[in-house]
Description:
The protein has helices at residues 4-19, 23-31, 45-51, 54-78, 85-98, 111-121, 123-140, 143-162, 165-172, 175-181, 183-191, 203-209.
Amino acid sequence: MDHPVVQILCCLLIGYLMGCFSPSYLIGRIKGFDVRRDGSGNAGASNTVILVGKLAGFAVALTDILKAACAWWLCRWLFPLLKVSGMLGGVAALLGHMFPVFLHFRGGRGLACLGGLALAYDWKVLLLMLGIALFIGLVTNYVCIATVSMSVIFPLYVGLSSAFWLGAAILAIPAVPIFCKHLVNFHRIRTGEELRLSFLWDREKELRRIGRL
């Protein structure tokens, strides 16, 4: 376990398996449906809000934040001499959330887990990133734009503020799969079928706009 390559592989495996835990899918099953087939079709907090409600969506978001943060903290504790152990575990958890092996690689889209990485890095950075994400979300009225933006802004902030560019590069790994996962959302924005953030406070109007009511 002392070899760096072995430690890296352990971090990736631990993080990935922790990320595969999907509270959104479990809540859907309890309610009698598959969250991957209904709503927006992703196993994450935003789709849980659409299908179940705000309280369930908040619980899912909190769990997804904590699983990424805990993967970071656990790997850092297990392998303290490996400087990037926490980052590797956290990023692997995010990828496990997006591509969980137990759900045929159909998971969520990563915003809450990005928050978990920011929390594990520094809780003050989490507050900053939440503020930026909220601003982007309110200005654009789309969660998907905030998510894709944060996948770039967070690692860039880490690199610029710490000059630890290896760590920033690791944290930037999810940016490409996050962007690819959101291509369908961007297509729905162009066709006027994507739910806006205002769905949270004006559900009926949004459902009527996209023809679901």
